[in-house]
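thought: user wants a sequence for this fold. calling inverse folding tool.
action: design(structure=
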C-alpha cells in the first residue's frame, strides 16, 4: 500500500489525521493529567497543563480567548508531536487541534520550557517553518520568562503575517487558574473541574515542577543603577539599558500578577507595543527614571509606579477626586478624613508606611502640584489660598538605597511595597461622585 503524503494539518479531515497517526507518519501522545514522565520533567508539566486546559472549561475558555482560538467544535490535545517525513529532527512539545464536522479547522503549536530553560530562537524558527508548511497559524510559548504582554516574545524572530505568536509565563497561567478558584463571577462552576484545577495548581506550586516566579532583575539593571550613581554618560544604544528596561517590564508584569493573586481579580500592567522599548529607553537616558501603571478593577484610580535611578527610590501613587461642589478647605478636610479612615481600617500597615506618605494637591491651571508630607497636611490650606484643588495624589515614596541596584533585593522590596501600599491606602480610598441632576417637580 502506497502511503499518502502528509502536506497539511489545518483543512485535513480528522479521520485522515487518525490514519496518518496509525501509519506513523504523524507521531503524537495524548495529553495525560497523570503522565508517566518523571516528576519535574518538562514534558510531565506540559502534559499536566494541557490536560487541565482540556478538562477545566473556564480555564480553556480564558486561554483560548487570549490567543483568539475558536472554542467551537471538538478539541484534542497532544504532546511530543513529530512528523518525520517533513522534519526528522523536530519535535513539537504540544499541539491543540479543533475539529468541526470531521475537519480540522484550527491548530496551535506549543513550545514549553521549565526551570531556568529559556525559549530558544532556533527552535521557534523551526516551529514557524513547520507551521507554514502545515497551514498552522498560531504558536504559543510557555516558560518562566516574563513579558509585558502575551503578544510579545522573549526572543526576537521574524514572524510571517499568517502566523500569530503568544507567550505566557508559568506564573501567569497559575494566576489565571488561581483566580478561577476565587468566589467571583468567573469562577469554575463544575465541582469536579474545580478539584482538578486545585490539584494541577498544587503540582505547579511545588518547586519540583520546575515552575518559578520572577525573582531577579537582569544584570543590566544593576549596571545602569551603578552608572547613574557614578554620573556616567548614558547612550540610547547601550545594550545594558535595554536590558534594564526589559527587566522593568517583567517586574511590572510580576507585580500585577502578585497583586492579582492577593485580590482575586486580574490586575493589568502597562500595555506595550513595538515602539514602547525605544521610547522608554530614550526617557530613561534623558531623565533617569522609568515608570509603569497597574490597573485594578473598581479601585480609586490606576496605580502609577515610578522608579528613580538618581534618587534610588520608588514611588507609587493614586489620584483621588474630592467634592468639586465644595470649597478648597472642605476638600482638604475630606481627603484628611479619608486618610484617617485608612489608618483606622489598616492601622498596623498604615503606621509602618505613614512617614513615607506624601499628599500632592493638583491645582487647577497650576504649573505644578503642591506637595507636602502627610504629617504636614494641616498646612495645605494656607499653601492653597486663592487656588482651586481639583484632585489629590496620595503618594508613597520609599528610598531603596543600595537595594535599588541589587537585582534580587529590588524585586523583594518593590513587591512588598505594592502590597503594603494597596493594603494601607488604595483599597480604602474612594472618589467623590457628583449627584445626578434632579427633575423639577412635575404637576
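)
observation: tool returned 443 residues.
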Amino acid at each position: 500500500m502506497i502511503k499518502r503524503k502528509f502536506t497539511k494539518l489545518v483543512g485535513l479531515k480528522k479521520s485522515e489525521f487518525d490514519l496518518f497517526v496509525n501509519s506513523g507518519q504523524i507521531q503524537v501522545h495524548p495529553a495525560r493529567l497523570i503522565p508517566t514522565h518523571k516528576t519535574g520533567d518538562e514534558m510531565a508539566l506540559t502534559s499536566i497543563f494541557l490536560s487541565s486546559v482540556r478538562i477545566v472549561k473556564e480555564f480553556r475558555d480564558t486561554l483560548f480567548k487570549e490567543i483568539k482560538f475558536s472554542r467551537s467544535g471538538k478539541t484534542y490535545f497532544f504532546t511530543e508531536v513529530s512528523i518525520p517525513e517533513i522534519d526528522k529532527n523536530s519535535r513539537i512539545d504540544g499541539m491543540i487541534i479543533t475539529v468541526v464536522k470531521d475537519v480540522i479547522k484550527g491548530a496551535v503549536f506549543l513550545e514549553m520550557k521549565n526551570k531556568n530553560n529559556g525559549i530558544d530562537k532556533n527552535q521557534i524558527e523551526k516551529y514557524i517553518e513547520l507551521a507554514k508548511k502545515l497551514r498552522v497559524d498560531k504558536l504559543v510559548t510557555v516558560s518562566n520568562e516574563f513579558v509585558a504582554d502575551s503578544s510579545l516574545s522573549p526572543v526576537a524572530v521574524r514572524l510571517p503575517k499568517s502566523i500569530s505568536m503568544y507567550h505566557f509565563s508559568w506564573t501567569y497561567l497559575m494566576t489565571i487558574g488561581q483566580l478561577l478558584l476565587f468566589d467571583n463571577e468567573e469562577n469554575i462552576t463544575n465541582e469536579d473541574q474545580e478539584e482538578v484545577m486545585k490539584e494541577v495548581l498544587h503540582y505547579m506550586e511545588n518547586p519540583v515542577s520546575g515552575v518559578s516566579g520572577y525573582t531577579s532583575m537582569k544584570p543590566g539593571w544593576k549596571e545602569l543603577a551603578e552608572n547613574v550613581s557614578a554620573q556616567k554618560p548614558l547612550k540610547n544604544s547601550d545594550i545594558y539599558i535595554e536590558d534594564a528596561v526589559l527587566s522593568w517590564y517583567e517586574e511590572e508584569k510580576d507585580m500585577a500578577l502578585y497583586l492579582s493573586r492577593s485580590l482575586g481579580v486580574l490586575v493589568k500592567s502597562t500595555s506595550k507595543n513595538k515602539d514602547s522599548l525605544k521610547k522608554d529607553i530614550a526617557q530613561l537616558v534623558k531623565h533617569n527614571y522609568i515608570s509603569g501603571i497597574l490597573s485594578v478593577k473598581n479601585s480609586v484610580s490606576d496605580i502609577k509606579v515610578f522608579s528613580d535611578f538618581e534618587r534610588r527610590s520608588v514611588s507609587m501613587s493614586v489620584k483621588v477626586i474630592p467634592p468639586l461642589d465644595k470649597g478648597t478647605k472642605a476638600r482638604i478636610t475630606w481627603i484628611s478624613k479619608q486618610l484617617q479612615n485608612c489608618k483606622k481600617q489598616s492601622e498596623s500597615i498604615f503606621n509602618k508606611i505613614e512617614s513615607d506618605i506624601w499628599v500632592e494637591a493638583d491645582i487647577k491651571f497650576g504649573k505644578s502640584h503642591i506637595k507636602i508630607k502627610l504629617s504636614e497636611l494641616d498646612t495645605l490650606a494656607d499653601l492653597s489660598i486663592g487656588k482651586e484643588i481639583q484632585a489629590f495624589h496620595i503618594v508613597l515614596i520609599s528610598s531603596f538605597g543600595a537595594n535599588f541596584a541589587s537585582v534580587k533585593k529590588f524585586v523583594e522590596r518593590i513587591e512588598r511595597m505594592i502590597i503594603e501600599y494597596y493594603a494601607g491606602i488604595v483599597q480604602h480610598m474612594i472618589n467623590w461622585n457628583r449627584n445626578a441632576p434632579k427633575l423639577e417637580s412635575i404637576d
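thought: summarizing for user.
answer: Here is the designed sequence. Residues 219-428 form a domain with the BirA Bifunctional Protein; domain 2 fold (CATH 3.30.930).
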